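ok trying this again, last paste got cut off
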Amino acid sequence: MWWDENLLALFRKNLQPTITYWSVFFSFGLCIAFLGPTLLDLRCQTHSSLQDITWVFFAQQFCLLVGSSVGGTFKKSLKLCLFILLISSLTISLVFAIIPFCKHVGVLAMVMAVAGLAMGNIDTISNMQLVKTYQQDSAVFLQVLHFFVGFGALLSPLIADPFLSDTNCIQSNNTQNGSSNLEHIRNSIVPNHPGNVSHYVLPLDGPVLSNVSYAFWIMATINLPVPIAVFLLMYQKGMVPGCKSKNGSLLSADELAMENKRETEPNDEKKPEKQEEHIQEKGHGVHMLCCQNKRFWNAPYTFFAIHVCSAVILFMTDGIVGEYSGFVYSYAVEEPLSLAHKTAGYLPSLFWACVTLGRLISIPVSYRVPPRSMLFINLIGMSGTFLFLLLSLNSIPGLFIGTAFLGLFLSSVFPSMLAYTEDMLNYKGCATTVLVTAAGMGEMVLQILVGMVRGKILMSFL
């Protein structure tokens, strides 16, 4: 049987926390993907220009980065971690419910900034708690975790699609260029770079006819079981004020994982040293232990090199994941390919479908293949795919094939890198915050850089 009995027993011991973390990450995925498809309807709702509304992307992405960094400060207090997850998942439902009432782009940007903070906390805390719970067995569960964010990101646009406006949702007698081809504008909008839509002028004044509010309320309802699941976990562990703990605190789940690991380790002279080090860390009162402990500054250079190398890889790969779907559409509709807008619109969908499929395939594969081998396969496959795309610049089938394989190879880079890095660093939890923050920076910075380069290239042809 492919599923190991010891691993299954460990999963059963931590069943409720694990499912809760997975469900919270579904909430993260649901929130991260809805903004792009609904942006034109939100533009009508706020009576704002395309240039103004696209900066809502930046508000969300920047605060997501801040939230990812802040989330790491809660790593020593598991009760606080669970409370932050409860507030964050509930915030996402509230954001979905409030968005239809945001009639000004500034108010919408502030609401999306709050959502970004919640998403950042979810990203860091969920990854960190799964790593702490399962340690050397965390690779499989991290793959499942990131499948759920992909599933949420795939579901969100599907929910929104029936409610999107087919024509310009601001009814005006002075409808100008671009309003007759809204699908092309939707696919052309690149987050964090409003300049690429400056040549589209849509009406700002007039009555608004849009049903997109129903999509947000549906997503708010779908997300409601997530904070309920977090609350039930807190209640079951006796973390709700006034409730008596019957099964011990959440820390007991982590301790069970530590005991399971110690039982499987051979008895050697290094074991007491590891236990003593663990006790010292538990007694340390500083949340940012990995950055403020004296031992941190006396660590060997390899400790820093591992963090830097892992962060750089995730900076690039997660940046590509965030940028490629927008870039590939813009590339396909321009010369020399000049694909029809509807045909080119299948490319982003194909990319995200392959990312989700790759994460699903990685769940059973990661049980048999160690994280470093999966990471090696992913990076080699990604490099080979880029080479293939460069060699088939003018080939439409080549673009579709390359897009599919790129999504497959990029899909499991993050969970494999996180599991491998934490394994090398003996699961101290420090790497999770660094890697999640680096990935968030890559998503934001790479989109801006690509947008700037594309803008300069387009200007050179004008």
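PB: full thing came through this time. The chain has 22 helices and no strands.
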